[in-house]
Design brief:
The complex is a heterodimer of chains A (248) and B (200). Chain A contains seven helices and five strands; from the N terminus they run H-E-H-E-H-E-E-H-H-H-H-E. In chain A, strands 1-2-3-4-5 form a five-stranded mixed sheet. In chain A, helix 3 links the parallel strand 2 and strand 3. Chain A is globular. Chain B has 200 residues and is mainly alpha-helical. Chain B contains eight helices and no strands. In chain B, helix 3 runs antiparallel to helix 4. Helices cover 78% and strands 0% of the residues of chain B. The chains are: A alpha/beta (248), B mainly alpha (200). At the A-B interface, helix 1, helix 3, helix 4 and strand 5 of A face helix 1 and helix 6 of B.
């Protein structure tokens, strides 16, 4: 009697375990690896200067603008220079970078990226879904043509990036950025006297610690303290290819 | 007493296995991925529509400067009307012929537009016209959005089709969603042909 009953039960159990095992394997394996993604630099701050086009004070200055801008509008703009587009067109690289980093508010997708690739001589303004209505293709193109490329063509990347960032911020409704004042004339950016260099360094540290304090106070996360660039991360925004590109 | 209690415990265990097994199988994966592909497809249609909406304005602007390029302009207008007038059957995603037809029509419009932008090279006045520059950047941006939307669609269909054709999703779909069928997707080669880069 008992043997009769036990046999089908354990058989069913064996089948069930097998099914369960298959399911677990399925879940663990997840979806198959799909199309290859380029390798992106880590998001170390609001300005990710991988191609080393910006001097420390300028980088700090732009970072300050971008932080103020986010505080005022909750939107995120990130300035990125890359060494290499890894063979991808800049249009392709740009939106994937934006998605990988999740720039902009989640669901609202209010992020934008200014991407500069000096090796490929390409620049792109990438507008998140939520900013496509303001930072339109035509306006992005105009900013690239009028504010960025003239300086780039003279080899003055710093000026072009500062002008472009200020113009984008203005289009997005933030008027706090005033380009030009701090930047020397084209060609003069390398020649810093020791005194001004010292002042820059002092300002740099004052500025940085000041903002760092605000950041840790506001967010209150231990993680931010470990990062040297003042703690910044994307908030889940997405991109769909809006914006414009230029070449020089 | 003991002999009766044991099978009962086994049965409870069995039911538990089923519940856990089913939840691990994710019985909602098929409809969820199905909705994802539909959303991705809507975005593809949306961006193609956006391109079609730009065409009349673009044609008018170009015609103002380059009326003699009648052939190229007519080709664009015809490709546009062919692409916009196509009646999309509701089952287009599961219908290979209709899907192919849709893809061909859109590729034809993309090609005609690319030729128009090449012709424009000969007209410096037009190339410096502000209205044209704005339209051109919108068209470039739209082509770019189309390729992003197409790629998103391709990835979502890949996910959906994989779920449908692999175990355990295949079993789940066989029992719970017998109507679910493998969906059509774009071939990348066509995409590369469709949007040649025009440099100015």
């Amino acid at each position: 009697m008992a043997r009769c009953m036990r046999y089908p039960v354990s058989a069913a159990r064996a089948i069930c375990s097998l099914a369960l095992l298959l399911c677990v394997i399925h879940v663990v394996a997840g979806c198959p690896a799909i199309a290859a993604e380029p390798k992106f630099p880590p998001l170390t701050g609001r300005v990710v200067d991988d191609a080393a086009l910006l001097s420390a004070p300028v980088r700090e200055r732009i970072t300050g603008w971008l932080a103020e801008f986010e505080r005022a509008s909750k939107r995120q703009l990130v300035v990125v220079t890359v060494n290499d587009l890894q063979g991808y067109p800049i249009e392709d690289f740009g939106y994937r970078l934006g998605r990988a980093w999740g720039i902009g508010e989640k669901d609202k997708n209010t992020g934008a990226i200014l991407l500069v690739a000096p090796k490929e001589r390409a620049v792109r303004i990438e507008a998140g879904y939520g900013l496509e209505g303001e930072l339109t293709d035509a306006i992005s193109r105009a900013i690239i043509d009028q504010n960025i490329l003239p300086a780039f063509k003279q080899g003055n990347y710093e000026q072009g990036i500062v002008n472009g960032t200020a113009a984008i911020l203005k289009v997005l409704g933030w008027n706090g950025a005033t380009p030009g004042a701090m930047i020397a004339a084209p060609g003069g950016k390398q020649e810093l006297s020791p005194l001004s260099l010292l002042i820059f360094i002092i300002l740099f540290f004052v500025f940085r610690f000041g903002r760092h304090g605000i950041f840790t106070g506001r967010r209150g996360h231990g993680v931010w303290g470990a990062r040297s660039r003042g703690g910044f991360s994307g908030r889940g925004g997405s991109f769909g290819g809006g914006g414009a590109s230029g070449r020089w | 007493m003991n002999r009766i209690a044991f099978p009962r415990a086994s049965r409870i265990l069995l039911a538990l296995f089923f519940v856990v097994g089913l939840s691990a199988c994710d019985i909602n994966a098929v409809p969820r991925y199905d909705e994802d592909t539909k959303a991705a497809w809507s975005e593809v249609l949306n961006q193609y529509q956006r391109r079609a909406d730009l065409v009349p304005n673009l044609v008018e602007t170009v015609a103002g400067y380059a009326r003699q390029e009648k052939e190229t302009l007519t080709a664009v207008v015809e490709a546009r009307s062919k692409a916009t007038q196509m009646q999309l059957p509701p089952d287009i995603l599961n219908n290979p012929e209709a899907f192919k037809q849709f893809q061909q029509n859109q590729a034809a419009l993309g090609g005609a537009l690319a030729r128009l932008l090449l012709v424009v090279e000969k007209y410096p006045d037009l190339k410096s016209n502000q209205n044209f520059l704005a339209l051109q950047s919108q068209l470039e941006g739209t082509e770019n959005r189309i390729s992003v939307a197409r790629r998103d669609y391709i990835l979502s269909v890949q996910k959906y089709n994989t779920e449908l054709r692999t175990i355990p999703g295949r079993w789940v779909a066989g029992v719970l969603y017998p109507d679910a069928g493998v969906k059509q997707t774009f071939d990348i080669a066509e995409q590369a042909k469709e949007a040649p880069k025009v440099k100015f």
